Amino acid sequence: MLKTTFNISRMDCPSEERMIRMKLEGLTNIQSLQFDIPRHTLEVYHTDSYDNLLAALSSLQLDTKLVSSEPTDMVSIKDSHRQERRVLWQVLAINFFFFALEMCTGFIAGSMGLVADSLDMLADSVVYGLSLFAVGGTVSRKKNIAGAAGYFQLALAVLGFVEVIRRFVGHGETPDFHLMIIISLLALAGNAICLYLLQKSKSREAHMQASMIFTSTDVIVNLGVIVAGVIVYLTASKLPDLTVGTIVFTLVGRGAYRILQLSK
Asked: How many CB atoms lie within 10 A of CB 158?
């Protein structure tokens, strides 16, 4: 295994990072990419020669220079992968627990907001599960995982919109605002913990970035359901719950789009 470091002086923002990832994704000898945008450096863990890496980076005309290339053991990479797996298992367990809790209480409370949030939690659980298979894989494999997760979330968004429309036309009763608020507060705490764990890992891998996008969206969703529960209490109407359900699935669809962009 080799660790080759490049200085890329014109790599100033995430857009250049994305260009580089796209350029290198077809190279099968890459094991890991570590970007440091403020310092304009890229560390590539790979097998075989670095010649094809340098040629690919130079073609982007970002003023790429070879800094060093040296053998490295697999210990640091394995430690990084072990940490990623541990974090993903933790957030997977939290999200699947809240998926089951919100789905059950959502039907009991008659809340479309809780049901929508539970499906979003299920989407996250699938993302984290898929991401576990991506840890240690090639760059292209990680991008494929992120793309699959994006399409899955998009499908859930479409199903959610269909259910919201069905309830808008007369099906369903006014939801139980007590359950809406209490369960959403618990889910908010769970998502805050997940986001903290993911950000603490400081991983720049595509599948881990996808996971953080999902969880950031969930925090907004939880707050929306809490607000809807308060408005349901004040108005005794189901419309606030259906409105937040619509907003939730819009956010789910937007998150899916961002994931699909990240996977390209």
From this structure: 12
Buried b / exposed e along 171-195 (16+ C-beta atoms within 10 A) = ebebbbbebbbebbebbbebbeebb
> Which residue positions in the chain have pLDDT lower than 70?
14-15, 18, 74-81, 127-128, 130-146, 170-172, 202-211, 214, 255, 258-259, 261-264
Spatial separation of the C-alpha atoms in residues 49 and 46, rounded to whole Å: 8
Domains of the chain: 2-72 (3.30.70.100), 78-262 (1.20.1510)
Query: Residue 242's closest CA among 115, 102, 108?
Result: 115
Residues 6+ apart with CB under 8 A from 44: 3, 4, 5, 6, 24, 30, 32, 33, 34, 50, 53
Strands (E), 123-186: none
Burial 66-75 (b: 16+ CB within 10 A, else e): eeebeeeeee
Question: In angstroms, what CA-CA distances link 169 with 109, 245, 253?
Answer: 19, 14, 22
Written as one string, the DSSP assignment of 95-111 is HHHHHHHHHHHHHHHT-
pTM to 2 decimal places: 0.57
Written as one letter, the residue type at 86 is R
Rounded to whole angstroms, the Cα distance separating 225 from 240 reads 9
Residue 261, C-beta contacts closer than 8 angstroms, at least 6 positions apart = none
Residues 120, 215: Cα–Cα separation, whole Å: 9
Cβ(30)–Cβ(21) below 8 Å: no
